[in-house]
Amino acid sequence: LSGVLVNTGTLVQEAGDTNFNGASLQNRATAEVRAGRWQDSTGTNSLVNTGTLTKTTNDGFTISVPMQQQNAIVDVQAGTLTLADSSNTHQNVSWSVAEGATLYLPPGATHTFVGTHGGAIAGTLIQTGGVVQAGSEGATFNFTGTGYQWRSGRLNGGSAGLTNAGLLRMVGADTDIRSLSGVLVNTGTLVQEAGG
């Protein structure tokens, strides 16, 4: 994919890999991903989501393209969705993960959150590495159900602060290492379950 593709209808990635080569995919309606990968290949690439991004099958799907989300919806109905690029920004996003499904924030990825983020998490929303940080204006997490699971990696509230208004769980094994920096404000439930 190269150039600008604007989706105002329904876009479905059924299988395989799509390489971004100097491309901007702008989703303003519904983008459904089933299996495969969106890959940052050559040039400057972006995925701009102001609509709904839905993961619908039991397969895995990885997004390795820089994401910019604003007033958007991410709905993981089945399978695994991995947001793996090194530079991602999310502003006022509604997140949901169905039972048996997983949304990964993996090692090597940096996710900057601005505004309010929340939703019902029946499955697994988990940070397994990388950096999750609040932007200069701060951010609020309000995840219910199984909550936001922080297994490893860095959580950085910055000077403006990251506020947990839902459930934030520190999970994993004793060998998992987490790093906290900046301001973390807890107005919900914070649980240290395991790890260090």
List keywords for this structure.
196 residues; mainly beta; 23-stranded parallel beta sheet; 23 strands; 65% strand
Characterise the protein shown here.
Helix content is 0%, strand content 65%. It is built from no helices and 23 strands. It is globular, with a radius of gyration of 16 Å. The model has no long low-confidence stretch (mean pLDDT 97).
Average pLDDT over all residues: 97
Count the beta strands: 23
Distance between the termini: 42 Å
The share of residues in extended strands comes to: over 45%
Task: Write a short abstract of this structure.
With 196 residues, this protein is mainly β.
Helices and strands in order, then pairings?
Layout: E1 3-7, E2 10-13, E3 17-21, E4 23-27, E5 30-33, E6 36-42, E7 46-49, E8 52-55, E9 60-64, E10 67-70, E11 73-76, E12 80-83, E13 88-91, E14 94-97, E15 102-105, E16 110-121, E17 124-145, E18 148-156, E19 162-164, E20 167-170, E21 178-181, E22 184-186, E23 189-192
Parallel strand pairs: 1-4, 2-5, 3-6, 4-7, 5-8, 6-9, 7-10, 8-11, 9-12, 10-13, 11-14, 12-15, 13-16, 14-16, 15-17, 16-17, 17-18, 17-19, 18-20, 18-21, 19-22, 20-23
